[in-house]
Amino acid sequence: MAPPCSSALVLPCLLVIAMAALQSAVVFADTVTAKRPLSGSQSALVSKRRKFALGFFQPENSQHWYLGIWYNQISKHTPVWVANRGTPISNPDTSQLTIATDGNMVLLDNSTTAIWSTNISKIASNSTVGVILDTGNLVLADESNTSIIHWQSFDHFGNTWLPGGKLGRNNKLAGVSTRLVAWKARNDPSPGVFSLELDPNGTSQYLLEWSITQQYWTSGNWTGRIFADVPEMTGCYPSSTYTFDYVNGENESESYFVYDLKDESVLTRFFLSEMGQIQFLTWIYAAKDWMPFWSQPKVKCDVYSLCGPFSVCTENALTSCSCLRGFSEQNVGEWLQGDHTSGCRRNVELQCSSNASVMGRTDGFYTMANVRLPSNAESVVVIGNDQCEQACLRSCSCTAYSYNGSCSLWHGDLINLQDVSAISSQGSSTVLIRLAASELSGQKKKNTKNLITIAIVATSVLVLMIAALFFIFRRRMVKETTRVEGSLIAFTYRDLKSVTKNFSEKLGGGAFGLVFKGSLPDATVVAVKKLEGFRQGEKQFRAEVSTIGNIQHVNLIRLLGFCSEKSRRLLVYEYMPNGSLDKQLFDNKKHVLSWNTRYQIALGIARGLDYLHEKCRDCIIHCDIKPENILLDGSFAPKVADFGLAKLMGRDISRVLTTARGTVGYIAPEWIAGTAVTAKADVFSYGMTLLEIVSGRRNVQGRRRRQEQQDDGGAAADRPFPLVAAGRLFCGGGGRREEMVSAVVDGRLGGDADMGEAERACRVAFWCIQDDENARPAMATVVQVLEGLVEIGVPPIPRSLQFLAELADQSNYLQFFSDLLPSN
Which of this chain's residues are annotated to bind ATP (predicted)? Predict the structure, then answer.
């Protein structure tokens, strides 16, 4: 017993008592004991550095309560672990998390019934405590030494994998693993049907599975640096904020992966969504939301049975899942909550018997076109569509068939049907869904009535079309121009000679030909490009031009028309008053582009390329991104030009680019190596262009230009700028970060630039120009980085830059590059 305090010691004693009370409060802030349980009527427990909280919560739009862990310092409530996933709490005020007499941590409903427990044996009674750590890990630890852990939530993941947690398998106990299991729905944490686990067969790859039985995605084996089928990892490993490590189980009791963060201020969330996709998210404080860094499968409809049986999945639709005709939702409540895995059921059962008929009517089929067929089909040898249909009708379990030269039947539940009509007609098929006769008869009457109406309307339209065609023909005789598909105008060569005043005012030229200024009769100013080295026939040219003419984006130049006469091929574009980017960056002595304008130009180019690569029906690779092919409108908004010419030129593209000396310095290494060129070649060219936007100078200089700069006192004129920038930014230099970034920004700006944006632009540029195309980010990622939605790590310096530096010392290095390019 402590001695009583004298009056002289009252203040010190009070301080001691206060400190003891504070220490007790601190212990209680993150700890559960038998004497200090946590109930729903109390505030949540918070980890020491206040990163994570443990307590009772109610999912949005849910009536149920759960005990879980969530991020404590962000505005959006985001659970990362739930104890009682399948057994909600009836009343949080009368429920509590405590330590039982046997030493286990238990969750009591109404203070009496244990609905969850750590369930560990051989623990001394009344000797343990529960602690929430700053890693988000809830541990059952020894009361006298909390470093001794008997149980941890990191061994029992929910749908989220946090940094420091081991996601793997037990090599001694078959079937035991720390798999991620998705929530059943957005507001229902009970275990869903989708899971992620390390391959139980012993390989180092992760598997995404449906009901643990059906695999629908794999990461590929670990190469020691990345997963074989996840090349995007190169963009964040090893030099960024993420590190991944793999412990092989050959001599270990377990095999697992673990990832950590170098920057503790970064919040990440690797989780398996209720839609069956794994997603890597980063918390963006400015946006106050989670932003995707990476996800797989990229196409939602590739998730197995996402929409359940007898439902169709439509990518990019507001609602991805919808029931087939003749079917309705199996569980309406689940569908309203976003859980479609129960699928759909028939409105009317099939009349399946030997005489399968009702009033003389048998089952029939509803035709559904433009679909991607499920894979679990039975092949039947038949002759013709009719026999295929009869083969399905003879089997009571047959629910659909498809005939495309061969007969495929589906039995039982029809799963994984995808509507691809809005994406592409390539690779699509037609499937016939089996329905009861009563589901089809009403449609037949309706169809007959509709056919009569359509016939009348069609006849009227035909008469009008004939009259319109006659009018157009007469107008063509006068104007000699006509509209084609979309809004393109088919010009005659004589028209364009007149429009351009016999091609007298040259705007510029490039790899594909010269460009001239012109003016249409309605005073619209245009740019007319005369294509050179073009060999395609007129029919193919018109088809390709028509496709390109229908592509519209705010950052892509608009094609207004074309001319195709004999060997002449010309394209008519909208006119850009501020010309090409190279003239504004390198040749304009009077006006220097502001930093904000440059950054918006860089962002606009990235958005335009992202549209070409990902948003068009077919991926379009530009093949010649450089400042000369970036045009600026009256407000300096960028528009990518010549984006369709690579598609038009076909195999001639390499020969044309070879002759274009100005293109050297933007060409990706795969062009020189002669390997297949993908959209990542554009990413490389964009990276080189972005460096020029930042610096206001050419990345590589010809001999004459380098001599001029040296004569003017250019200190670094003898070395390629990308190598100079890499040395200043990423190889030290002894200065502050802002000073190093400022050293690579165009000096004409006088330091008037956002250095944070400049560093971000340089980092993404160097990721874009990596030697390995798999290490380069997609343009969609580039857009997110420049928008500040995604952080990006420090890139490695490409080996090709050193090669470029060596060539810079040679007077003929431009010719050297040209000689390396394939000629045909």
Answer: 530
The CATH number given to whatever domain includes residue 644 is 1.10.510.10
From 624, 642, 682, 746, the catalytic residue: 624
Is pLDDT at 429 greater than 60 in this prediction? Answer: yes
Q: Is the pTM of this model over 0.90?
A: no
Which is more confident, 800 or 486? 800
Exposure on the CB side of residue 452, measured as CA atoms within 13 A: 5
In this structure, are residues 433 and 368 in contact, taking their beta carbons and an 8 Å threshold? yes
Q: Is residue 8 part of a domain?
A: no
Angle at 685 between CA 683 and CA 691, to 5 degrees: 105
Is residue 530 a known part of a binding site? Answer: yes
Give the pair of three-digit tokens for residue 734: 């002894």
pLDDT tens digits for range 21-54: 444 334 448 999 999 999 988 889 999 999 999 9
Task: Choose one of 443, 463, 494: the last residue of a domain.
Answer: 443
Q: What is the overall mean pLDDT for the chain?
A: 79
- Residue 469: inside a domain: no
Residue 99 lies in a domain: yes
**Which residue from 147, 155, 108, 150 is spatially nearest to 125, judged by alpha carbons?**
150
811 with 679, same domain: the answer is yes
Last residue of a domain, one of 527, 552, 574: 574
Spatial separation of the C-alpha atoms in residues 95 and 111, rounded to whole Å: 5
Query: How many angstroms separate the first and last alpha carbons of the chain?
Result: 96
Specify whether 624 is catalytic: yes
The pLDDT value recorded for residue 640 is 92
* Residue 761 included in any domain: yes
Q: What is each CA distance from 773 to 236, 621, 682, 700, 770, in whole angstroms?
A: 14, 14, 10, 21, 7
3-state SS assignment for residue 659: coil
Domain shared by 540 and 629, yes or no: no
State how far the Cα of 387 lies from the Cα of 755, in Å rounded to an integer: 71
| Domain shared by 319 and 253, yes or no | no
What are the CA-CA distances from residue 578 to residues 382, 555, 582, 627 (Å)? 65, 15, 11, 13
Q: Which pLDDT score, from 0 to 100, does residue 29 have?
A: 86
SS3 string of 3-29?
CCCCHHHHHHHHHHHHHHHHHHHHHHH
DSSP state of 614: I
Domain with 287 in it: 157-298
SS (H, E, C) 636-658: CCEEECCCCHHHHHHHHHHHHHH
pLDDT tens-digit readout, 684-704: 999 999 999 998 988 876 544
Q: What per-residue confidence (pLDDT) applies to 16?
A: 44
How many contiguous H segments (helices) and E segments (strands) does the chain have? Answer: 19, 42
pLDDT in tens, 59-116: 988 889 999 999 999 999 999 999 999 999 988 989 999 999 999 999 999 878 899 9
- Do 521 and 491 meet the contact criterion of CB atoms below 8 Å apart? no
Residues 568 and 593 in one domain: no
CB 651 within 8 Å of CB 540: no
> Which class for 773: exposed (0-12), middle (13-18), buried (19 or more C-beta within 10 A)?
buried
